[in-house]
């Protein structure tokens, strides 16, 4: 890719996490989390956002995700997303606090309804929309075709391959929740074929709407750097006495767009440098 293809603009804020902390009982898990992500706009293409969260086990990735989806109430701070039901004011979409259901959540197990076929699952996902029966059908069939799921439209989860299951679960969340989706360790435990299949699904989501925003966690640093345009590292800070803290926060943010290494077709030496920086930070966290 040439550098011209890397040209982009940053428009309205699509995610604003403000001084967020979450505690369970009297134990604080994450603290002082501040994240601002903007709508990335590139010429003559739809460009969504892919944000990766890295961090060692127990550093609060899943806890943060539950707060981002509205499943967990923050102890302090808040999570804001654009309120698309309101008109734009002074060039900015008014914001609202996230509520359960605003952000799709895909867990590691790709849980599906046992007694619904792929088609029925997707139809159910569209139940809150104002689309007519025919529009729903057209939308579902369009996605099934795009995502290579046409042939298993009438199958139940037990008869799906791992890859088909993952794509159905991701599609279900995409259709029911709109533009935002959180996936907690979507690549762990997958074989190479299924990893490719989920990567493809990410790309399809990313290219199909300007506002589509995928947030995912992973232990695979290379994969995070390859797929995301923005990467956050969660971890414990080193305290002044050299000891490791016990409440996680964002230790570092890599904006891969700014670094010129987002949306590349191949993994370059610059990506490798970034992987090395991430590893150094994580080892001390
Ligand atoms: N519901 C809960 N109640 C109490 N402690 C919890 C709960 N969920 C997670 N924790 C604790 O919070 C910490 C962070 O967990 P988690 O968010 O799952 O981290 P990660 O996803 O990065 O591995 C861990 O110490 C975990 O034991
Ligand atoms: Mg987790």
Polypeptide structure, described:
The protein is α/β, with parallel strands linked by helices and 285 residues long. It has a single domain, classed as P-loop containing nucleotide triphosphate hydrolases (Rossmann fold, 3-Layer(aba) Sandwich), CATH 3.40.50. It is 30% helix and 28% strand. It contains 7 helices and 10 strands. Strand 1 and strand 2 form a beta hairpin. The longest helix is centred in the C-terminal third of the chain and has 17 residues. The model has no long low-confidence stretch (mean pLDDT 93). The site of magnesium ion has 3 residues, from helix 1.
Name a few traits of the molecule.
285 residues, Rossmann fold, alpha/beta, 28% strand, single chain, six-stranded mixed β-sheet, binds magnesium ion, four-stranded antiparallel β-sheet, binds adenosine-5'-diphosphate, 7 helices, 10 strands
Overall mean pLDDT: 93
Q: How many domain regions?
A: 1
Number of helices: 7
Q: Which residues form runs of ≥5 with pLDDT under 50?
A: none
How many β-strands, per DSSP?
10
CATH class: Alpha Beta
The string of secondary-structure elements, in order, is: EEEHEEEHHHEHEHEEH
Q: What compounds are bound to the protein?
A: adenosine-5'-diphosphate, magnesium ion
Radius of gyration: 19 Å
Enter the CATH topology name: Rossmann fold
Note the beta-strand portion.
Answer: 25-35%
